[in-house]
């Protein structure tokens, strides 16, 4: 049995990858050249549905701008918006919708003239004070629910994030099960062969030799996309492509606990690749996130799930703060999760691409709770916890800094409470002085500070 894959679907996967990684120019060029449109809204589909059900028409139309929607859905949607405006007494806006909006003035009037005339008549009747209109059903809540179902089923169905990388990971896993890939070998995905030649050239360039302190090898040989030490340094936790979380005794290198086998079937474990891990300050809690949008908080000592969150997109980084968990997501939004309430407490919007790292900054001057976030959009933002206000403290306007460089993390300088080390997706490392608000970059070629 052969499986037919449309070429347009492959292009859409590439478009999704480009959009999620902030490659806007490449995204636009590929769309223009192929004629294939990545018909996905700028906000999560849950936010679209919420705006429709609550009747926030201004936000809804803003979210839907740029999407390719069917003429029948556009006519139904604008017809219902016009009716609701009239029912709310805004007859002027309703008439403008009939006369000026493209779905009604062009599509509805040319394709269904009788329906267009009936809509005009209904608006006039409502304006004259008639509340019983037989020509249209005026159950607004039921109509909104129908439109929301059509929006999700026909127009913008929910699309999981990171599909291209997920499919490549599944293909690699299948090749391993078929014996085509050996465990423990660095694989060159582009060439389709072990990365031995590249490893050899890298070894020849290395100036220092390091001794291996401990080697940890999983029994299954599954790739490990993320791992981290516990705060006491005694345990090393790994997350696999299979969604399993394993705890290793670092001194002996032996498996101490497999968290994924400690829970009962009533709890849903991670079913896709683990993409981020984080310990609480006292190492009592462990948070794990997977590419399907799940975030699970574990009691690390007992190996039990205490909280489970489902987010509308992929979590990229985690950060504990007392009874709260900050999650940086692939849509550029930072979400504050309450461990006691089990709900999303607040969303912080500002970044336009993946949020790669979240760091708390102790501000002893005015005792404010500040949070710093680094993103693939090439910026670092400073946030106030309470009101969500933020300002960009590093972007392309700083000296020697390219806005296309994806910022991976923010590391405080140990000797300088005002200094930050900023690695990015380039051959430079930036050092930012918060007190003087200056940025210098270190290049490995020149090994000097450049203003």
UniProtKB/TrEMBL annotation:
InterPro entries: LisH (IPR006594), SMU1 (IPR045184), TPL_SMU1_LisH-like (IPR054532), WD40/YVTN_repeat-like_dom_sf (IPR015943), WD40_PAC1 (IPR020472), WD40_repeat_CS (IPR019775), WD40_repeat_dom_sf (IPR036322), WD40_rpt (IPR001680)
Gene Ontology cellular-component annotations: nuclear speck
The keyword Cytoplasm appears for this protein: no
Swiss-Prot/TrEMBL WD repeat ranges: 229-258, 267-308, 348-393
GO biological process: mRNA splicing, via spliceosome
Superkingdom per UniProt: Eukaryota
Pfam families referenced in this protein's UniProt entry, alphabetically: LisH_TPL (PF17814), WD40 (PF00400)
Ranges for domain TPL/SMU1 LisH-like dimerisation: 7-36
PROSITE patterns: LISH, WD_REPEATS_1, WD_REPEATS_2, WD_REPEATS_REGION
Keyword annotations of the record: mRNA processing, mRNA splicing, Nucleus, Repeat, WD repeat
Primary localization class, coarse: nucleus
Subcellular location: Nucleus speckle
PANTHER family: WD40 REPEAT PROTEIN
Sequence similarity: Belongs to the WD repeat SMU1 family.
Protein name listed in UniProt: WD40 repeat-containing protein SMU1
